[in-house]
Amino acid sequence: MKSYLTPLGPKADKDTVRRHNLSLVLRAVRDEGDAGEATRAGVSARVGLTRAAVSSLVEQLIDSGFLTESGKTFSGQAGRPGTALKVARTGPAGLGVEVNIDYVSVCVVDLAGTGRVRQTEHLDNRGAPPDEVLARAARIAARTLDSAREQDLYPVGATLALPGLVSGGSVRQAPNLGWNQVPAESLFAEALSGLRTGDAPLPVRSENEANLAALAELWFGGLDPVRTFLYLTGEIGVGGALVLDGRLLRGAHGFAGEIGHVVVDPAGPECRCGSRGCLEQYAGQSALLRAAGVEESGGGAAGVLELERRAQAGDARAVAAVGDAGRMLGRVLSGAVNLFDPDAVVLGGIYRGLMPWLSAHADEELTGRVVSGLWSGGSGRLRASSVAGDAARGAAALVVQDVLADPVAYARPAAFLGD
Amino acid sequence: MKSYLTPLGPKADKDTVRRHNLSLVLRAVRDEGDAGEATRAGVSARVGLTRAAVSSLVEQLIDSGFLTESGKTFSGQAGRPGTALKVARTGPAGLGVEVNIDYVSVCVVDLAGTGRVRQTEHLDNRGAPPDEVLARAARIAARTLDSAREQDLYPVGATLALPGLVSGGSVRQAPNLGWNQVPAESLFAEALSGLRTGDAPLPVRSENEANLAALAELWFGGLDPVRTFLYLTGEIGVGGALVLDGRLLRGAHGFAGEIGHVVVDPAGPECRCGSRGCLEQYAGQSALLRAAGVEESGGGAAGVLELERRAQAGDARAVAAVGDAGRMLGRVLSGAVNLFDPDAVVLGGIYRGLMPWLSAHADEELTGRVVSGLWSGGSGRLRASSVAGDAARGAAALVVQDVLADPVAYARPAAFLGD
Fold it and tell me: Name one GO molecular function term (chains A, B) (predicted).
């Protein structure tokens, strides 16, 4: 009988405790800031450390540029007024680089999680070799970093968001890009270093783009109190992510969430993944536009806008195509819900704008096929993503999470040396 | 931006630390016992406590009946020989009660995880009202407890294993039993108390049977190092469970794993769950026997044996029926694997014996449809469950887990009072 025997770790020493507490205080200020003004007293109550300890930690965080302090604030309660604390809007930040099928989008997020710089270029990445695509993304990233510097924002790391199976720094497979075994992290990092010869190299990591969009939705999208959900993003491919109690469910190898390749009809059309009849072939952007009779020549984004316009105008073929896609989505989602039992399903990407013609059909399938009965019509569990659910922002915010989890690791070298 | 801000818990006091360490030592002896003989020195090395501390904790565990000590053991290493420690084979134990469609199986598991008493009755539970079914299960459980007492085993709790959606002590829905909103825990507990008037009432909890079979497979089935897997059990229904890194994935409401109701064909035969074309209608026991032309009149278990016999003899209809079921399983499993990315899929129940005619067809679907490419033929990731993967044993072992996690809570009142 195997157990969950937890080996005793080394005892936490003073330095470890201090680093942990600096993180606690920094995150508490960030979270209080969401609600209103953060004060030393409020932080003390929230994290359970004494007022004196919090004050000392706050001073260190101010000295090293993670927190700023503004004028007096009056809490409305008895006692001395405190000064308002905020996480710094300058200094350490995160860089997110989404390389998708027909666009590259780069953004910089500050410590508060706010997107501060964004550059997006629409282009078709399907034709080009991976190293060229990543070199182009690096050029956009370098320009974005220049803009960030003008705002005194200095990203301390970058996350690549990629539409495929990502593991160990490489893209194992990205069917719609035609990538196989591409060492994306190192290709991008080298290209970016080559463009920023004076600067220290930026640590780069990579992650599936739907995973990052789901995290962005969780962190910024007002999903609360939902913490367990399935996220779907309709693009040229159909990406998916599972979030279980506020954490990404990556599976055994990091490849979980590939709902776009769940089979709808075993004898259906060939899919780029090598299988047949995958959901993507029924509810992906190309399939949808084709079924609706919208020419894709104007580019994907233009085609989707045209589809929305026609559906809005009551064009029968457009409405029927979106309805059919909704039914297929609902059918596959009902299976996923039976398996995973989420609190909600969030639809992003092209589905966001198509919800009026899509959701009732998907809901009908969910109502009839989810065995728990919790998904009957009008349950409100199927919802559109917010604008926040965007992979580049999630990618950048993932870097910020690291900073918040251990600010000492990202401080200017001398900042935390003195007491 | 929401964070994973962890509030500081209260500081662990001496008593909490001692209870924790008693559990650590008890589990270490159990785990060492799997490999060979456990000694104080071995336990000390494993848990990272001093030899003196371990000796003191061991004495307490021996005094209170959780550990036993046998004669000298020679480690083959330099130094004094130690005595061999074992978890007690008498005393606290767990009771597991599986109430399934056509049988009730009850077992008692000792602290080492070994099944010590088992009673199984084959009967059709579909016709009877839930309170009668549970009263019958209680009678079998009471007889099992009598047998256990003769071996000096005293279950400290019971787990009900039920083929349906189980949450908060009730069965929300068990389509194949025809149960809806049945307060199974209290019905069973009351019936059992009525049969054991002299004894203290046994705490009862309930859980989905596939979840418990999956745990039994994890703990006793030799799956190691696989810790993330999908478990399927073919019975009259098709049950499923997801295990993520050694823990059950229950989902937001406890209803995860319902793979039997993933849709195969939206226009397929009606399912007892109210939907159409669920996997159960293609790969469940009744569907399989029907397709193979095996009369079910001899009872389910007899029918499955007859099916195996015919397949073994090369009966074309039997072989084709099992092959078709394998293809359907493979198709649905490929979707589940794309979503959840497990390390393995384990097939239990009737599928165990049918693997020779089933697995190649399922493998073919998995090879073609899993986008990661990790499931190509001969990957060995699709496997039969061991005999260990049984819900009643998992149910009983869940109680034992509680005892191992905090032995003090299950000791005779005076046992841990002195130092």
Answer: kinase activity
Q: How confident is the model at residue A73 (pLDDT cuts 50, 70, 90)?
A: low
pTM for the structure as a whole: 0.90
Is the predicted pLDDT of residue A36 greater than 70, yes or no?
Answer: no
Is residue A210's pLDDT more than 70?
yes
Q: Tell the CATH superfamily of the B225-383 domain.
A: ATPase, nucleotide binding domain (3.30.420.40)
User: What is the pLDDT, as a whole number, of residue A301?
Assistant: 78
What is the Cα–Cα distance from B18 to B226, expressed in whole angstroms? 32
Share of chain A above pLDDT 70, in %: 90
Candidate from A46, A218, A371 with C-beta closest to B273: A371
One CATH from 1.10.10.10, 3.40.720.10, 3.40.50.2000, 1.20.1050.10 for B14-87: 1.10.10.10
The boundaries of every CATH 3.30.420.40 domain in chain B are 91-211+392-410, 225-383
> Closest-CA residue in chain B for A50?
B8
Question: What length is written for chain B?
Answer: 419
Minimum CA–CA partner of A112 in chain B: B1
- List CB contacts of A79: < 8 A, sequence separation 6 or more: A41
Kindly report the CATH number that applies to the domain delimited by A91-211+392-410: 3.30.420.40
Write down the ipTM of this complex.
0.88
Nearest to A335 among B252, B335, B371 (CB): B335
CB distance from B387 to chain A under 8 Å?
no
Q: For residues A240-269, give the mean pLDDT.
A: 96
- For residue A253, the chain B residues in CB contact (below 8 A) are 341, 343, 372, 374
pLDDT digits (tens, 9 = 90+) for A366-398: 999 999 999 997 789 999 999 888 999 999 999
**Mean pLDDT in residue range B389-418:** 84
Q: How high is the pLDDT of residue A419?
A: 40
Q: What is the distance in angstroms between the Cα of A274 and the nearest Cα belonging to chain B?
A: 7
Any A CB within 8 A of B175 CB: yes
Determine the residue among A229, A339, A406 to mutate to test chain B binding: the one whose Cβ has the most chain B Cβ atoms within 10 Å. A339
Torsion over CA: A104, A109, A115, A117 (sign): negative
pLDDT at A80: 54
Chain A residues 242-301 with a CB less than 8 Å from chain B: 242, 244, 246, 249-259, 261-263, 266, 273-276
pLDDT value at position B5? 35
Q: Which helix (H) or strand (E) holds B91?
A: strand B91-99
H-assigned helices in B155-201: 184-195
Set of chain A residues whose Cβ sits within 8 Å of the Cβ of B338: 258-259, 261-262
Q: Give residue B140's pLDDT band: very low, low, confident or very high (50, 70, 90).
A: very high
**Beta carbons of B363 and A272 less than 8 angstroms apart:** no
Nearest C-alpha in B relative to A278: B369
- CB contacts, 8 Å: B47 with chain A: 5, 7-8
